[in-house]
Amino acid sequence: MAAKTVYTEEIDDLELAAAELHAKLKDFHIMKNTLGIVFCDVETDEIALVEELHKYYDFPIIGATTVAMITTEDGYKDTGISLMVLTCDYGEFCADVTEELTAENAQEEITKTYNKIKTSMNTPEKLALVYAPQMTYLTGDSIVNYLTAINPDVHLFGGIASDSFDLTSNRIFYNDISSRSRIIIVLIGGNIHPVFQQQYSIIDDKGVMSEVTKSEENVVYEVTGGKLLDVLNLKGMGIAKADAYIEFVGSVFEANIKVDNGEYISVMRDLRSVNVEDGSAVFLGNVPVGSKMRLCMLNKENITNSVKGAFKDVIAQIKDHPDYKYTTFLCTSCAGRFLNLATEPDAEGKACQELLPEGMTICAMYSYGEICPTYTPTGQCYNVFHNKTFTLVAF
Predict the structure, then answer these.
(1) pLDDT at residue 201 in the model
(2) CA–CA distance from 149 to each of 124, 141, 142, 155 (Å)?
(3) DSSP helix/strand/coil, 236
(4) Which of 127, 134, 193 is nearest to 159 (CA)?
(5) Fewer CB near the last or first residue (10 Å), C or N of the chain?
(6) How far apart (Å, rounded) are the C-alpha atoms in residues 357 and 334?
């Protein structure tokens, strides 16, 4: 497998943008099976962009809007268009997009699309890439759970598209389809050995919160000690208005969630909004009853250290496969981490460039939720939806 990531800052003249991306790929050999992955500024006309790119290439192109991106040569960029091209003669990239999803039809449509893609493959799938817009009626956890139910042995990686923090204009796209209510699924088969890592950054906590005693998916109503909002205000959060995401973007909740074998996995959960009437809070990820939560803070140093930790672990895993040539890093990092970098927004991008092994390429997006496998203390692997987390896959 071969891969290359290119970038242009042009988002207005898309004929020029496509020509610039094509020129940067002129010496890159396109093989029999190829896929393009685009991350772009939310102001980009993505359908017009894909139309221009398809004047040069006939392979499928998927993508998502993002508040910022990271590329191999250009590092961190807060606007523009990045394009990763994956190509091989013997592996497979089979992609499709679901129909419009509702809370009622999501599981059926996701299953239908996955199985449709699978029937077109000649080899078993080893990795599924998943990109979705933010849908208030369909949590990232539900998407992960639906896909895992179809094939529990396939690792999932991807994320939720982001925008300029209005939380309403993020989109995904697949060829000539752009949507706020569909998801993209890419099944990758053949001779690949994907390795993963996810790391988050916390520097402080405000004490262990009691167990969640009443919740429904991503809405937490009560913990031991009373209504969630009352408990948070007692801890000094001072939440008095419904929209809490930006105001508390420097805060995050660590939730220990029980999994099937009785072990716990630790995930980050971002506070999106609160209901001052009933004392509940909406998070960007699910928090089941029985989870134990604690309130934490972030800072730039710990965010950068988590990038270093993720790369160190993945590079160690790469060395366990000396007969396989790794070429590609895909990364999804939380938009909330980006905001917490404040005056040094390129810190993660610099770290990625410094740590990227020679001969490999990277393409990264900032998201409203990250999809990546994680492991229990005994080594059991689960596909998980994360917040405020840096995630990597190499293959």
Answers:
(1) 79
(2) 16, 12, 10, 12
(3) coil
(4) 134
(5) N
(6) 23
Between CA 366 and CA 339 the distance in angstroms is 10
Q: pLDDT tens digits, residue range 181-233? A: 999 999 999 989 999 999 987 775 556 667 999 999 999 999 998 999 888 88
| Count, residues in the chain | 395
List the domain boundaries for the chain: 2-199+301-394, 204-296
Q: Find tokens 């499709």 and name the residue.
A: 96
Measured CA to CA, the distance from residue 224 to residue 213 in angstroms comes to: 6
- CB atoms near residue 70 (< 10 Å): 29
Alpha-carbon gap, residue 371 to 310, rounded angstroms: 15
Output helix, strand, coil percentages for the chain, rounded to the nearest 5. Answer: 20, 40, 40
Residue bearing tokens 């208030």: 136
- Mean of pLDDT values over 271-275: 87
- Is the model's pLDDT at 236 over the cut of 90? no
Compute the mean pLDDT over every residue in the chain, rounded to the nearest whole number.
Answer: 93
- Look up tokens 């390795």; give the residue: 195
Which 8-state DSSP code applies to residue 135? B
Cα torsion 117, 119, 121, 123: sign? positive
Distance linking the first and last C-alpha atoms of the chain = 9
CB 369 within 8 A of CB 387: yes
Distance of CA 360 to the CA centre of its chain: 20
Strand order across the 361-367 sheet:
75-77, 69-71, 361-367, 328-334, 389-394, 195-200
| Run of H or E including 237 | none
Phi and psi torsions of 259, nearest 5° = -110, 180
Q: Classify strands 61-65 and 33-40 as parallel, antiparallel or unpaired.
A: parallel
The C-alpha torsion from 41 through 42 and 44 to 50, rounded to 10°, is 90
Helices 347-355 and 300-318, axial angle in degrees (round to 10)? 20
* DSSP type of residue 173: E
Q: Are strands 2-8 and 81-88 parallel, antiparallel or unpaired?
A: antiparallel
DSSP H helical ranges for 155-299:
228-234
CA 298, CA 335: separation in Å to the nearest integer? 13
Q: Which of 354, 391, 360 is nearest to 374 (CA)?
A: 391
Neighbours of 2 (CB within 10 A): 17
Rounded to 5 degrees, φ, ψ at 261 are -90, 10
Query: What is the signed CA dihedral for 1, 311, 165, 336, rounded to 10 degrees?
Result: 160
Distances (CA, A) of 95 to 60, 128, 179, 189: 8, 9, 16, 12
